[in-house]
Amino acid sequence: MFQTSVLASGSKGNSILIRSTDTAIILDAGISLKRIWSALEALQVPRHSIKAVVVSHEHSDHTRSVGALVRSLRIPLIISADTYSYCAHRLGKVQEYLRYFESGADFLVGDILVSPFRSSHDAVDSCNFCFEHDDRKLGVALDLGYFSKLTTFKLSAVNTLILESNHDITMLMEGPYDWNLKKRVKSEHGHLSNDQAVGLLSQIMHSGMENLILAHLSETNNHPDLAFEVMNSYLQSIRSGIRLLVASQHEHTGLVDV
Questions:
Q1: CA 84 from chain center: how many Å?
Q2: In the chain, how many domains are there?
Q3: What was the pLDDT predicted at 182?
Q4: Average pLDDT of each block of 10 consecutive residues along the chain (258 residues)?
Q5: How far apart are CA 50 and CA 47, in angstroms?
Q6: CATH no. for residue 119?
Q7: How many angstroms separate the first and last alpha carbons of the chain?
Q8: Are residues 256 and 244 in contact, defined by beta-carbon separation less than 8 angstroms?
Q9: Rounded to whole angstroms, what are the CA distances from 88 to 95, 102, 126, 154, 242?
């Protein structure tokens, strides 16, 4: 068994579950502890199966409940040293649970191999990840302003991909954000648009890819139906049988077999 569920995704909070038969990992905990417990209960994933919390970067929509979660379960907090230095004030007393990782250096959590790599985002040490178990590979590419050669190389053989599809460029430019925020979102250190998500996917498509979950959608500058339509149009144009899902800010996805 190797499964994932996006517990929540969007500018108000992000969290992802990754699990094998013996090990479960929470990637980011930017939603309330109550919501995390509720999602795990609905998915029938026992709390004691969670073996670590991994943090991608310091922004509050990814770290809000990290400290409370690791203290509650008394499990390792796996985070880069630079990221920890920028959000330690938000995490509380977690020193006894700290375990540092470095971008580019793989590590194991139970029987899941975790591969962190740099993402182009306005954070001190922002990372994307691949998770591998029993010859299956999950890629998570969120919070990146553009996709580099490193990004496409790392994601090249994923069976399931959780991919940022943050905004529609027209909605962003004609929407209510002030100009500086619009520039930040569309910059190389911001977020991928729906069209950029298609561009990234087109670079890594292969016959073994089975699931694609669009995530981190802006509630102001995008719509789930629009993100789905743009990506689905591309998938139909290449006659792909990939299962396409859109993650929500307000509810978890079902468990997806990686």
A1: 18
A2: 1
A3: 95
A4: 97 96 97 98 97 97 97 98 96 97 97 97 95 98 95 97 97 95 92 97 96 97 97 95 96 98
A5: 6
A6: 3.60.15.10
A7: 8
A8: no
A9: 9, 17, 15, 29, 40
